[in-house]
Amino acid sequence: ASSLRCLRGHNGPVLSLSNELLGDDGSKVLASGGEDGTVRLWSLSSSGKRGQRALKATLHGHEKP
């Protein structure tokens, strides 16, 4: 199997994913929560290679439930 896209940004394992989000313009957004205490929002509409330009926001200070 081959990868469709590689998104790089978390400093450690990714613990959760959700693709139920929509951007302001109706584009699809993926949210990923990592052990590094961040939630990252990724544009699934971005055409950048290896996830470049796909990262739209990083939210800091999150903890595991």
TrEMBL record:
SUPFAM superfamilies: WD40 repeat-like. It comes from the Eukaryota. Signal peptide: none annotated. Keywords: WD repeat. InterPro entries: WD40/YVTN_repeat-like_dom_sf (IPR015943), WD40_repeat_dom_sf (IPR036322), WD40_rpt (IPR001680). WD repeats lie at residues 7-46. This is F-box/WD repeat-containing protein sel-10-like. It comes from Trifolium medium. The lineage of its organism: Eukaryota, Viridiplantae, Streptophyta, Embryophyta, Tracheophyta.
